[in-house]
């Protein structure tokens, strides 16, 4: 029987940074079932005290201390969080202090700096709009602007990957589904053929594909294992024939897919 334990991610901003770091660490412990709770915008004494009450309640309900990952900057607010009946891990303290010691200077301790990535808001929004407009082959106009074009069978993860590339990295990404007409012609969609150097393929195990499709269209031919096996086989044959690099996404997350594609293509964050 696995151990169950609450895990809190506490931040004075959105909580995205601390949640990513915390979840990455927790993923190393297979024998524990963590109950994640993100507490964003804890930027006042009152909110910090409310967070402590919530953490203490979880400790009573679980019968053990929660784990608390924190990126709170203001000392007064952080000191209140330290009073919780929990293992409180201040991620900034663990990393910022050694860096201060090494550089011989104090950090600014400015709230919200962890989100200053150098990626301009307008660039990301332009990339997101581009990804939405060029989703599933919906628009072919301006396709040449794409930095990467993903192809693959329906429901293999193309859309979330292009959106993640756009939102997180400002990459102009488009995607095209491989459908029955392409399989009959044994050729890539005509719109992407001139841009073959930008095309990357996503593939997936048929069994996993059938599960995903069944959630959307249960008991349909579209979701049948037989049809999924056929489509994946034909898609892989087509991509191999065209010399398109393929990435098997069966067991990896959208974040891992996007990062792997950046590594393979050499594309850089804008």
Task: Give an overview of the whole structure.
The model has no long low-confidence stretch (mean pLDDT 91). The chain has helices at residues 16-26, 45-62, 75-81, 91-103, 121-133, 158-169, 180-185, 206-216, 225-242, 254-265, and strands spanning 3-10, 32-39, 67-70, 87-90, 148-152, 173-177, 199-203, 246-248. Helices cover 45% and strands 16% of the residues. It has 10 helices and 8 strands. Helix 6 packs across helix 10 (254-265). It has 2 domains: 3-115, Rossmann fold; 121-265, Rossmann fold (3-Layer(aba) Sandwich). The strands form 2 sheets. The chain has a 4-stranded parallel β-sheet, sandwiched between helices. The chain has a 4-stranded parallel β-sheet with strand order 6-5-7-8, sandwiched between helices. It is elongated and about 65 Å long. With 270 residues, it is α/β, with parallel strands linked by helices.
